[in-house]
Records
---
Amino acid sequence: MREIRRVAVIGAGVMGAGIAAQVANAGVPVVLLDVLSVAGTDRNAIAARALQAMATADPPPLMSKAAAALITPGNTVDHLAALAECDWIIEAVSERLDIKQALYRAIDGVRRSGSAVSSNTSTIPLAALLHGLPDRFAAEFCITHFFNPPRYMRLVEVVRGAATRSEVIDTVRRFADLRLGKRVIPAKDRPGFIANRMGVFWLQCAVVEAFEQGLEVEEADAVIGPPLGIPKTGVFGLLDLIGLDLMPQVVASMVSLLPDADPLHAVHRPLPLVERMAADGYTGRKGKGGFYRLDRTAGGKVRQAMSLGSGQYRLAAPVDPAVIGKADVKALFARDDRLGRYAWRVMGRTLAYAASLVPEAADEITSVDQAMRLGYNWTRGPFELIDQMGAGWLAERLSADGMPVPELLKSAGGRPFYRVDQGRRRYLGADGGYHAVRQPDGVLLLADVKLSRPPVVKNGSAALWDIGDGAACFEFTTKMNVIDPDVLRLLQDSLAVVASRFKALVVYNEGSNFSAGVNLGLALFAANIAAWPDIERIVALGQQTYRALKYAPFPVVGAPSGLALGGGCEILLHCDAVQAHAETYMGLVECGVGLVPAWGGCTEMLDRWSSHPAWAKGPMPAVAKVFETLATATVARSASDAKELLFLRPTDGITMNRDRLLADAKARALALVDGYAAPTPRHFVLPGPSGGLALTMMADSLRRRGLATAHDLVVSQGLASVLSGGDDADLSRPLAEDRLLAEERRQFMRLIRHPLTLARVESVLETGKPLRT
């Protein structure tokens, strides 16, 4: 089968439009079709409106404006012939078998032989979809079940039929992996496949038990949430996202498809309160509210929660995490109180249900764990949770409570579902033996490296790892991967180690975020005791370390994913190259907390913009552009956006699949080794005080219009001084990097002594948001 170069998505609803957007994010042209619009003159209005909505949706489905230009809206009457030019046709219409089959017949009449066709269905079996359709169509048809929103959810379940050609599955799988950034999990043709089969049971069980045990929604979400590695939305918060009108339909559909012996039947019952809420428009976040809502009647935003007992809204009462504690999973399930009993009744049955799905719905436990981690954002999959308490303990507890014990739990015989053997992670198969957990070709995970070797060097905040072939990897290990003095000191030590033992260095970690920046808590503590020399030493240490990284005698490649803010962004600015995950959100946000970037961020951004052909006409255009970006604490909303803002260079790479990031960065670093020469220090021609005054006047105009505060102006004055070169700069005398770095330090130290800056820092640490003073 040929490579996928053009895609069609039929169905411009939330899922179809989201899938089309992700295809466009991959740089692939996509035709987005929906039914003919009979209202107005635009026959493509339905698909066109979906495309327009992408520009304002939050979170945004598109990574860049360029991606939007790759989507062509149309309708299934005038533009069905366009499918003949497409290599993959994705159906995402309503979940009605008659509508889908009629569409398939129309598609088969125009598509090119060899093109793949797939359905995004989550409830209809593949065998039913193909009933009565030609063999040639069945040979090139499969199910590709994306999760919403398609840009951000990394799971795609693929179901093949008995007649589906292997080449079709391989082509779709490869494209979804490499170009769309998905982890592709093979699923069997069973109701709900894997993730929704598990997820629907878990959610239904949690809701029913909350009603029957008299819990409130905040209590249920506090228990079935972070303590178990489940997102803080918990159960009822997640249902508000899914929609209270949709969930009962999904459950009813699953019940109609599953055999009578399936445990879902035991937890399926009418929920009058939920039915009433949905009928009255309280369908969750898309409606007037759900189990939670914001009450704006008094002019503010008061969070309310629905009482499951009274059926009335009341002031939300968050549960103190100390009430649940930080006990392990086994201890939580063993608690003899209402919260412990609830946790056990929900999760005991959920984990038993997971064990019953192997091999009925999935061949391997790894597929179930990956499906729940990627499809529902669980930190640990069901079998990883079972290992935390012990399979034997779970089986005994189920039996003691009169619940059936699945065969897989019995056959485990108390053995763990995962173990490490000779540096490799292995899983327990349905055959009773252990098998190696294998990654797809081209995937390198630091977690796997750690199983097979110790770190080269490490301290409490960072570590250096040998990742093979002469490449080393420097990893932050602090909370949120913030950068503290120990990170900087170990990085300096690591540079010496790499110079003597390795060819290249990758800066990377597998946290949710690359780095949230400097450790603000440490900075605030030092400021509160007036330890100004200590703060200035840390600023100088950061500058020295990052410059040593930039001018190291070997190539350095940064590999970020998630947030890369402040000092985390600055370390990337000093790398020879960056291989960024597509979902990288970079920015120098120091001005937002009343400071200026002081680890070389201002200097590096001036270097980039003054070298840009469109901004190199005299010093002021580049200076003004950097000032605008930094003064507003602009954060790129994707790696593509980061290129537009020059946080990434045009030559930097983007990896769509998070699992492939380290391997791609390593390959990039090793490719730079031959003939490598460290960069040459630059000099800058900057306007000096007159340019700084012009920038300050720009900021003052915003203050007068009410778009900036008085302290914003104070911060902007400091930033303007840095970017214009300081008091003694002028156009006739180029400034060396050292001079700019000295001005960064000077302005940083001036601002961190300001009481309003300290108030902003304290606010960020307490609330996550700076004070607007």
Note: The chain has four domains: 7-186, 195-420, 446-589+635-679, 689-767.
---
Amino acid sequence: MATSSTSGQDSLPEFDGHPYLQRLVKLRQSFPALKGFVRKIQNTDAGRQLVEKYYRQEHNRVPGRCYGLQFNDDGVSLLEDYPDGFGSPQALREYLEHHPAEASREKNHRRLFILEDMEPSYVDTLGDHLGVDPLVFSEQMNTWNFSDSRSIPHRGLPSLTQPNQSFTLRYYEIRSLNDASSVDALTYQMTFAVNRRRYERWRDVDLPTFGNWEDSRHAFIRRCASFWTSQKPDSSSKALGWDGTC
């Protein structure tokens, strides 16, 4: 997927064949938040390799999924010919090549692409063809207090944010644990994804139980969901076309 330079400790992957990610590497000095993002998205540790192997062997695809929605005056529907989403980054790339963003917006189409996880090829395709602000992807992976408990997060500058055009929503997901000792200071459990999150002990909080079930310990995961739209903040007409990612 990519090759890495070995010239110094500050080296970063080159992302061969990924033009959008290649541009982010060049922009990292002007936008420091992108440096941590490109490092994490090209991470090749044992956990990442396990995720890649599972999805390829069990599902014959790369991690993550991408669906497209079309918003019309009479409702919302899945993109025609893609009722099960895009089976691969290549399928998404071919669709966007035949339905480019500029032509779609000129026809007042309103499309939303929903991306699960941060698989590099999906990120590159959406970013390159739709012109997604790269700081949106960076916020999704590096959001303060939600990256993981051992990383130094890097937020974008408030002066660069446009909440009416893009934002990141942060929330906690609660997980019940059958084994109370499965998440403690000596273990390191994470979600099964490219953009992995660490399971944390939900300390000193008793959640209500149902029926006669015994109390069980709980853990939480820091989750993020980001949104970006190509529609300009000052657009006054709802008929204007736009593309969005979520």
Note: Residues 19-245 form one domain.
---
Amino acid sequence: MIYIRSIFALLLCLSVGLMADTYNISGRVLDNRGEPISDAQISIPKIKAGTFSRKDGSFSFDVPPGNYTLHVEFVGFKLRKSKLSVLTQAIETGDIILEPSTVELGEYVVTASRSRKAVEDIPTAINLIESVAIKERQAKTSAEALREETGVFVQKTNHGGGSAIIRGFSSNRILILVDGIRLNNSTYRLGNHQYLTTVDHNMLNRIEIVRGPTSVLYGSDAIGGTINLVTQQPSLLTDSDGISYNAQLSGRYASADGENSGRAQASVYNRSFSLSGGFSLKEFGDLRRGGNSDNPLLENSTNGLKQSPSGFSGYDADAKLVWQPNSEHNIVLAWQHAEQEEVPRYDKYESGSNITWLYDPQIRTLGYLKYTHEPENSSWFSASNVSLSFNRQQEGRITQKTAESIIETENDDTKTFGSSLQLTSNIGRHVLNYGLESYNDQVESGSFDTDPLSNAITVNSRGRYPDDARYNSLGYFVQDEWYPSDRVLLVGGLRYSSFNTEFDVADAAGNGLQTIKQNFNSLTGNVGLVYKFTGSWSVSMNAGQGFRAPNLSDLAKLGESKGDTYEVPNTDLEPEKIVSFDASLRHQNGRIRGELTGFYSGISDLLSSVDATFNGSPNFITGGDTLKVKQKANTGEAYVAGFETSLRAEITPDISSYASLSFSYGQNTTLDEPIGKMPPMFGRLGLRWQQKRYWLDGFLRFAAEQDRLSADDLDDDRIPEGGTPGWQIVTLRAGFDLLDQLSIRTALENILDVNYREHASGINAPGRNFIVSFELRR
């Protein structure tokens, strides 16, 4: 008995001794693009040990000797398991690559709260498109990358255009951000435009969309929603003092327009410094429409199936410098330049109103400096962000009606200087985001006429906008996120915004110019709630105000507009305002994720185009054509109501199905007519098969007929008489990875070659379209 007890005591001592010895497990967590994933959970369930990855993706923790299974997981990615034998020394796992899961909702968003938040802690309706999805969708532009999103409809005036419509609102009622920097300026027009397509989708890391008003956080224009295009940022080394680099070459071909595009990018980095840059070259031919249609209204092209002219070319360049001297400080200096040349506005050619109508040039240049400070020990704030930015939008138009008529050339140049300060403070169960931002526009605008017979040039008295106009905005905001319990989140915010503008216009008597000075002010608020019933079910509700201050395009635009109309200034305008309510029911677990959202938005002082006079006449005659005179005006009260729903279900570990459906109904109650450019019901239904290196995706995308038209819609020759017919198209896509360096993706869009037009577009969508692309990485 004594012998047995002695042996037991010896074994116990040895066991305690072994448990006292520990070894370190370290590594780094990356996504399949090589970008670090922070806050990923690394664990060994057997012994209940683990940690979370840091900002640079690195992790480190100690364990006693043993044989283990390491679990690495993060929302939006597949669980990664690895066998480890930790017996005699520390273990370096190296880079652990997580593959995206088939779940559309991503791990976190920034745009909805101006700070990093988990998806389940957001009361508003959101979309998150990761870089993998952008590439798999084989999108031609950033606008087309949004086509498959719940609640987002895309209109295209021309082949180079692309404007998102969210909950019935589009153009300058949607706010566009790049890395949180405002792109909307005072010359963004109410009609649909192409500004979204000037942001190269090849340089994007993700796209975040907030559906519904976000004016408390971002100010004017954020009525229908906010789109934040987040660019790539190279990672930093964590386990070496040396220098590393990576490079990527990609290309794309599409048969419907003979597209040939490509991009080259590279980055070099060490522990605290990274420098990256890229260049994209794009060439698009005339777009071929579908050959199968039951509606002759969509077959009025004089060139058969080819919609000519619609092709154009362009290029994009970008560079980014990141300096992180330590874990508390981060500085980013970025520059982007995009240029499109001779982009035809196809609807003007098809209608026969012009022999020349070109956007030339179409140039966007953005530069910004950002500084982020996240102190480890501060009683005042947990993070501060300062940014300075310069955004320049250059837009030119060249138009000619007949071979003998005058060639009109317009040039608009808008320079925007921006600055912002944002602080985040954690106070108990409260998270406060507060700060201020300012944007200042300087507008140069001019035009001249050229006689095609004599080449004589006549400089006009003004361009589309008043030359040397100024438009300034200043906003102060605060938003509180309160977590009274683990299941409840309450959000409340306020913003005060001030605008002032100064420009010259001709006086009513025609005796010269008069200087117009105007000021607009707005106080907006929002409240939101998230309640989590269980681990998988939650409900969210949100009530928010939004507004859009009249910009220079509303107040002072002069020139031809859509259809046979001529727009004149109206300096007697008020901001349009919205009060929106929405509620969402969400379910998400490992196999099924879905969301159902209903919304209602009441609008006051709605800005719309109305009949007007110019020099006492309701018509304007130019080059032998008679145009109807219109201007922007506050037309009264309106509302938009509807729903958005999406569902994704994992049938097997390799096969998943998905569906979405969106509907908006808009009515101007003052004029007793529909709100213009309201999209029809639309949606998608699909099935996906995915292995580690292979995937196959097939879906049906559809839209119903839209025959609810406003008086302004009836003047728009882009909309067929009687409305836009409904349509359904089938698309099949596939991709595979060869080793870790090469990815090949293919697609066959619109397999049945349907001839269709997305509502309010000026060009028919592509017919049967074969696409192939590649991505080579080093």
Note: DSSP finds six helices and 48 strands in the chain.
---
Amino acid sequence: MQEHLTAIFLASLLIAPSSLTAREAPSVDGFGITPRPAHAERGTGECTITQRTSLRPRGVDPFIVAFLQGRVRASAGFALREAGGTGRERRSIRIAVDSSSVRGAESYRLEVDTDRVMITGGGEAGAFYGVQALLQLVSLSPLAGRPSPHPHLTIPCCRIEDAPRFRWRGMHLDVSRHFFSVGFIRTYIDMLAMHRLNVFHWHLTDDQGWRIEIKKYPELTRTGAWRVDREGRDWSDRPPAATGEEATYGGYYTQEEIREIVRYAAERYVTIVPEIEMPAHALAALASYPAYSCSGGPFTVPPGSYWPISTIFCAGNDSTFAFLDDVLSEVMDLFPGRYIHIGGDEADKGEWRKCPKCQTRIGTEGLTDESGLQSYFIRRIASFVSTRGRRIIGWDEILEGGGLPPGAAVMSWRGEEGGIEAAVKGHDVVMTPGAYTYLSENQGPEATEPQAGGGYLPLSKVYAFEPVPDTLKREEWDHVLGAEGCLWTEYIATPSRAEYMLLPRLAALAEAFWSPREKRNWDDFVRRVPRLLERYDAEGYAAARSAYGVRISSGSDRQSGGVRVSLSTEIPADSIVYTTDGSEPTALSRLYAAPFTLRTSASVKAAAVVRGAVLTPAVDTILFHRGMFKNVSVTYPATRYTAGGPPSLTDGLIGSLEHDDGRWQGYEGVDFEAVMDLAETTDVSGLGIRFLEKISSWIFFPSRVTFAVSADGNDFAPVGSIDIPAAVASEGPRAREWDCAFPVRKARYVRFNARTIGTCPAWHPGAGGKAWLFVDELIVR
């Protein structure tokens, strides 16, 4: 146990960097604790803890005592003097469990006066959380690991009464797409415990890897845990294994390792919910045992790319259920928690439609269709799990095809709708809407972040998450067990990347899960973020600084003929510096004080300065040209991605690599045609048009672009055309202007045409689906 103590909460004893004075330190009434307590009162003065202070535990888990001792020893260099009894002598820390005075096993009361500290938990977990709160209040002069010659800890006098809002405060980790070591799983649990989360949702199986040892079926780890190494290629561009190619990438957890991790988590009051995916997302399992599929295989474990998800467990074969019962039996022997997650999402039923056994099952069970067969599948698995005194939980697709069995719970990821439906029907719900809780999405502008799976989920949006939908009635609220964040790892291959994507957004989620709704306040949370980042740094976590990233807001002003630019950050930086010539900003660059106006083309680069360091800059391109602010008519106007309508096509604001940045107009499956009115006859010698290509989002360059000019808007003369090479799978997101130059022509009207490729190519996961054209600026020179 001792080896773990120096690795956990090392920074929890830090209040802030050495440059932060005690006067500046967050006070109790300012809720320096994260997540914010339900009730806190600041007292007068401080309590000083020295090596003469006694530690008096009463009826608490010895691990909690050892944990606190380890934190003090690691940070201050001395051990607290342990003593028995309930004495009230000067300089003592008392830790007790008393359910009669503190209601709720996870609730705690923390009282600090000038002589002593008293932590009372309603249960063991409450006592543990009280210790964590205490550690967040401690003020040290030295940094952790560098005790002062005269070590002591100071704690502001206060009284805190606290309890969690929700029973289920979870965080998910996908170890199928990338395998993470036992050591990092411990670290992950430490991070959850630091934020007072109590559920670790361990996504152990999926198409790209099976990660749990099952004694009865050794091929699951001998074959299913390994895939060919394609780590040098983009996740969506990984061809399957060639004949004879060795599978070398992957790994799995032995049952002994899992038992140790379960014990480790339990010490920190974290329950592990294992996930075994079914009926789909099962290719790693079926590559190991193809007899349980509809087609019989053979299969290989895919090295990446998750579409299409067509391979599925055969629901018409009783041996499939015998296999899954055996697997789940061993899983339940390893994980003592109440819930077993069975997945249930994104089940393509095409193979079931073709499978004679599945069709026979539909008939004999009196089911209406394949959706009913999925419901049958879920009910049968739930029935088996219930024989062991457990309950299933699954993604919201398990609602499809019929009623859920009693006791089944739903994890709502496709928005709130699945959770609302389940709660109304009397089922328990864990809310995980991807728009707020999928921490695998970018937390800053895509151009400034490491590659991720797409999407944009900044810290402020995470903090805005409310787990209880407004449409639920009061009597239905109790079915919302709580909420959970998810970390899918297609683009997260290392522990440092996982930490980067997790922190500090995990703190924002934790506050939504723990703190009373009426106590949550974004401005207050923002004041606590720097302190959190210091704690993460001292712990050695690779936390992101994306919330300090500059947001460049540019707006065209047609009256003045300029572009107004403003700069901001999610959380306050010391300053913002910027350049307009494309050069990298430094601490000596122009200091931003107020919005400014540009009247010539510019490449704006702006960066936050935090504690003397210039962070990664944001970039925005402003292009002034002769067609700027001219009127445009579009033959087939955009209806979904409109970017503000036709005026955005001539506003000089250049789109980024994010298709939903508000500057791109999107056209699905149709050609693009637009005519620009230059207002008067003028000399024209060059035309251009900008497009985005983002293959993963079904967005492609056009196959051909043509340009024409006219004096009257009726008779157009072609002036150039460009045939554009077809995209290849390995190309990442890119934006490009396609242009042509020609001898000067007099014209008032200019026509732009772009021919779509029509449908996604055969090699694309969405083969046959409509391809998108994304257009930004129509340029005249």
Note: The mean pLDDT is 91.
